[in-house]
């Protein structure tokens, strides 16, 4: 297995769960990034205490105020990251921020569908747009013609819940809006892979597994995977991706997930 080496990475929804795990694992790499940007809604709030502790120990960790449902906040975050990078690009954008609700076909509402699509599908589109200049700069500044996560990549945190073929855990939790938003995110990933290929930017959708987080526990069951196991697996997968994987839907072990 290769080891992920990036100069800079941004993780959204980084104050807890998988996002926090990604930040911790990136900082703990044998060759950690020169910059890890941790996006979260309220950097000084109660829910960001773990991040604050990490930032006090790691000068290469920068907490970035980021509300992914607010286009102005996304633009401000991109400008702030660009200033900190001082002319070098952003290698890795991990669109991890997401929300889930267990609503059924009978209880879904316009507001709920809108909220989940805004966070889970539209935000990764807008973040891709806002950070495209920095991703392009990273791709142009990296040697070689192939694609990789060390060069420039967008990683969209998807879910097997968005697999139309699998309909994973349907009996346990319908989660209609969540499933629809993740299926749409998978299509967005394919579109980004096609649209950004010319810039040398790899795009992939990842299923992190069913993980022991606040979101993972929402259906009332104990998920089988720890955050550490999921994140460790995903970083190994990312380290081995190449242009042939751009536009793919993979799980934390590198297996292809059915659309």
Overall description:
Helices cover 38% and strands 13% of the residues. Helix 1 crosses helix 6 (227-239), helix 3 (71-85) packs parallel to helix 4 (110-140) and helix 4 packs parallel to helix 5 (176-195). It has 6 helices and 7 strands, in the order E-H-E-H-E-H-E-H-E-H-E-H-E. With 259 residues, the protein is an alpha/beta fold.
Notable characteristics:
259 residues, alpha/beta, seven-stranded parallel β-sheet, 6 helices, globular
Overall pLDDT score: 93
Would you tell me the structural class of the helices and strands? alpha/beta
Query: What is the count of DSSP helices, taking H or I runs of 4+ residues?
Result: 6
* Spans of at least 5 consecutive residues with low confidence: none
First CA to last CA: what distance?
26 Å
Shape: globular
Taking all Cα atoms into account, the compactness measure Rg is: 17 Å
What's the story with the biggest beta sheet? 7 strands, parallel
Q: Care to count the β-strands?
A: 7
What string, H for helix and E for strand, traces the elements in order?
A: EHEHEHEHEHEHE
Strand order of the largest sheet: 3-2-1-4-5-6-7
Measured by DSSP, the beta-strand proportion falls in 5-15%
- What proportion of the residues is helical, as a percent range? 25-40%
């Amino acid at each position: 297995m290769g080891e992920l080496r990036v100069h800079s990475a941004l993780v959204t929804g980084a104050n807890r769960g998988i996002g926090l795990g990604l930040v911790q694992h990136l900082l703990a790499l044998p060759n950690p990034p020169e910059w890890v940007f941790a996006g979260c809604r309220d950097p000084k709030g109660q829910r960001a205490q773990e991040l604050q502790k990490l930032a006090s120990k790691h000068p290469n960790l920068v907490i970035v105020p980021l509300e992914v449902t607010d286009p102005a906040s996304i633009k401000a975050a991109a400008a702030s990251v660009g200033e900190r990078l001082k002319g070098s690009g952003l290698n890795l954008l991990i669109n991890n921020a997401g929300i889930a609700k267990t609503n059924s076909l009978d209880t879904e509402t316009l507001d709920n569908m809108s909220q989940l699509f805004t966070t889970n599908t539209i935000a990764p589109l807008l973040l891709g747009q806002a950070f495209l200049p920095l991703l392009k700069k990273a791709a142009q500044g990296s040697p070689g013609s192939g694609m990789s996560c060390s060069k420039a990549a967008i990683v969209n945190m998807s879910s097997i819940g968005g697999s139309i073929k699998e309909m994973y855990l349907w009996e346990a939790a319908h989660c209609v809006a969540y499933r629809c938003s993740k299926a749409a995110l998978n299509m967005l990933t394919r579109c980004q892979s096609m649209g950004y290929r010319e810039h040398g930017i790899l795009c992939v959708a990842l299923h992190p597994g069913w993980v022991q987080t606040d979101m993972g526990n929402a259906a009332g069951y104990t998920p089988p995977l720890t955050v550490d196991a999921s994140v460790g697996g995903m970083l190994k997968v990312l380290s081995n991706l190449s242009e042939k994987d751009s536009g793919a839907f993979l799980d934390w072990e590198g297996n292809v997930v059915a659309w």
